[in-house]
Every structure is written in C-alpha cells, then in structure tokens.
C-alpha cells in the first residue's frame, strides 16, 4: 500500500460543504484515497509516531492546497491551431469555417501529441480531471482518432472524461462543416458503443468515463441529438454539447429551426441532469430557469468567450437560480491556452463587469472549479479534500514574488495575485504527476518540439490544398 502524508500546508481549502479552510494542515493518503485531513500536529502524532518506512511525506510549507481542479470542456486537438494569424480576430462562425480546413489534416500522431500538450498544461496549472470533446473524423483518416487521446491520458495519469463528439449535418444540408467531415448517425452510434464497451468505467474513483457529445446545433441533425440521448441513457453515460455560445448560433437556430438554441435542445429531448452544455452565453431568465429545473449543467468558458468576442455568460444569475455550473478552458484555438488556474482568475474578474463587483467572490469561483465541475460530471468522489474522496490535490507555492505582500488571505492570493499559474505539485488518484513545477511523466521539451512540428505541417498541408495563406489576416475574406 502506498502511504503519503502532506504536512505543514499553509492553508487547505477543502471545498467541503462548509468550504472549510484548515491552516497549518495535513492530508493523509493511502493508495488513491484521502484517509485523513486535519491540523499537521494531529496527523503527525497519528502517522509519524512510529517509524514507518512505507510512508512518504511532502513538506508543504508555504503552499496552499486546493482540490484538483476540474476542467469541464475542451478540444485538445485545437492546441495545434493556437494563434493562427488569419483567425486571430475572427468571430466563431468565421473562425470555425477557416479552421475546418486545417482540422481535417489531423492524424493519429497529431491527436496523441495534442493531448499530451493539453493534458500537460492542465496538470501544470492544477487540473486533475479533464473533459475533452473530440469530433473531427475526416473520411480519409482512421476512424479511431479519439483512441489516441485516451492512450495519452492513460500514460500520463490524468482523470479523463473523453466525449465522443460527432457532426452529421454537412454544408450541403444546411450545416456549417464540409460534407467530408461529417459521419452518418449509424456510424457515430456504432463507434460510441465501441468506446463505451472498451473504456467506460462507471465505478467509484474511475479514471475514465465516456460521454456522448453531438457537436453543436449547426453541425448535427435533430435525429442524431435524439438518438444520442436515447442511447446514452440506455448505457447510463452522460451527454454534452455546445449551446448559446454566440448570436450567430442563435440566428442560425431561429432561421433553421424557428426556435432559440435551448428550446431546440429541449424539443429534441436533449436536457436533464445527465446533460451539460458548454457556454450558455446568450440565455434569458426563462432559459436559466429551465436549466435549473431540469438540473442541466453548464461548462462556463470565460476566456474562450472573451477571445472570440462571444460575450460574458450570465453566471451570477445561473448560480442564483440554482443552475449547476463548472469551469472550463475550452478548445485551445479559441482560448489559445489550457491554463486552468488562469481560467479561475478570468472568471473572478469578468463577472465584475457583467454583474457587479460583488457578484463573483473567490469561494464561488473555487466552487465552480471543483464541486461544480464534479456535479456536472456526475461525480461525488472528486472535487474536495475530504476523507473518502479520491486523492486529487494541487499544491501552490506562495513563496513567490507575485504573491509577496498578499499573505493576508493565501487562498485569495492564488486568484487575485501571482505572475505564473504553474503549480508546485499535482497529485491525481494518489500519484504525483507534477513536482516542483515540472511534469514527471512527460518530457516537456520533446512534447513541445513534436507539437510545433506537427502544427506547422498541418498548416502547410491545408495551405497547399486550399491555396489560402493562413499566416495572413487579409486572407480571411477569400
Ligand atoms: Zn468548445
């Protein structure tokens, strides 16, 4: 049995129901489960009284402990398309129209590399559980691309909720994606079944759960939404999609379906406690009430919404109405970063503009990033530092110049201050994956080099095929 005692923690923000904070605290872990939490003096007496060669200790002096952060929406494959000049200033529909042409160049090697980048950055910024929605299945590529990100997650050791994404409504039928990037309903459901059978683990402390995720109202058919939710409920897995992200999407739904996006989802039966949506930027009070009544979750992606100029989601109103809300970095092509701790800071700040300075206190941000995320993923075994929870913990070193002078409230300092979001230590399921701000299971330099090489090759291939120079913003209008 592996035994680990983390002691002398400056403050543990447990995120239990009372949001208890423990100063000079300690956490005792056996294998993958938290067995004890309390003051260091008490836990030292219990576990260090007799010499114990099996027990490993971490001295966390000056460090704040948070429950491992939970990222509830992402598209790892987009880390290869960060910051492409042609779409630096584009809104969602233009952005996506251009990027489809680059995304279709994805390869198994690319999916694997991009997952390493995304997961590595998430672990380094305090995230221990992540979702990823993968929905690019070009007709001329192997059908099991998503398996390569699962392989990467299993090797790295992050807790993973891969979403089998899908697109079934091509341009010729009024959708946004090119026809050769879509699949038919039967093929999608067959592959969904394969993935559930092969990988889904519904047990407590599960490291991998599959969800099914039609991409968006403008890229899937109503039949696919209906069939997906029916099949997911039969197999007891969750469902996910994008909703109410931009005014363009709202206009599309009003024109095509004669309904607003959420009403359209409701008409297809795609709502409920086993469903969570990314974004929810453009929702009115009635729609927020509907989300609350149906216990449907929202993955709030503040940076992505700012990056694409989509708007600021009405999160204060959602929380007040009792909507389940988690936090997310979203695809890196819209966020251009997978900085999870940075996303907390972004969330803390933007709602002060949207709904007033008092509308987003630290505790609400931390709650969404931990317990809120756990809830919308249907998990009661992660999201807090409590006895019986999975040992998913991140330690942040406050002895850094960016926090100096801010130790009146060390937990608050993590969000309000700091000049880097790289954490000191990240532990997932009892295993140390980040130590001293470095990834233990990945060669960072090798990963960076490979990702840059693949990203540039993808762009070159796309450019050769389309004749568009993606490095020039002026090409946007072509
Ligand atoms: Zn997304």
Mind sketching the topology for me?
Elements: E1 3-13, E2 21-30, E3 33-39, H1 40-47, E4 55-59, E5 63-67, E6 69-71, H2 92-103, H3 108-124, E7 127-134, H4 145-156, E8 159-166, H5 185-199, E9 211-214, H6 222-235, E10 238-243, H7 247-257, H8 261-267, E11 275-279, H9 285-294, E12 297-300, H10 302-307, H11 315-320, E13 324-327, H12 332-335, H13 340-355, H14 362-376, E14 393-397, H15 410-416, E15 425-428, E16 431-435, E17 438-439, H16 444-466
Parallel strand pairs: 1-4, 1-5, 6-7, 7-8, 8-9, 9-10, 10-11, 11-12, 12-13
Antiparallel strand pairs: 1-2, 2-3, 5-14, 14-15, 15-16, 16-17
Helix pairs in contact: 3-4, 3-16, 13-14
Zinc ion binds next to loops.
Walkthrough of the structure:
- The protein has two domains: about 5-65 and about 390-440, Urease, subunit C, domain 1 (Roll), CATH 2.30.40; about 70-375, Alpha-Beta Barrel (TIM Barrel).
- The chain has 16 helices and 17 strands.
- The mean pLDDT is about 95.
- The chain is of the alpha/beta class and about 475 residues long.
- The termini are far apart.
- Strands 1, 2, 3, 4, 5, 14, 15, 16 and 17 form a nine-stranded mixed β-sheet that branches.
- The protein is about 40% helix and about 20% strand.
- The structure holds zinc ion.
- The site of zinc ion (ZN) has 6 residues, from loops.
